[in-house]
Amino acid sequence: MKITGFNPLITTENLEETVALFEALGFERRHTKQDLGESHSTLVRMGKDDFRIDISGTPGVTQARTYIRMNVDNFQEGYDFLVSKGFKSKWGNAPTEDASSMGVPMESPSGFTIALAEHLKND
Hints:
By secondary structure, this protein is an alpha+beta fold. The protein has helices at about 15-25, 75-85; strands spanning about 5-10, 30-35, 40-50, 50-55, 65-70, 90, 95, 100-105, 115-120. A hairpin with a 5-residue loop joins β8 (about 100-105) and β9 (about 115-120). The protein is globular and about 40 Å long. It starts with a strand and ends with a strand. The relative contact order is 0.22.
């Protein structure tokens, strides 16, 4: 398994307010994905120099949360590795999948969450 990305991910109900804060810090929108998963979240990927942050606008979130997003080149291998370290899927075993990615939040035994993801390449 190769880690291809590692950055913070904020989940909030106040997407535009949070994006505006990071824009004020000099981050720029890189791309947006809409209608993700059962919650119909919107994900905004932002960057500044070599730094990246993802902000997920998720309806019904009562408190913003920060996770670690870890992109890997092989989702199953990454999932199996985290499970071997005691991580548990927060959504059951099925990842959320769309045309360009798949992912699932995995909670550690001590309580922090890694949002495991693989960018799917369309050959």
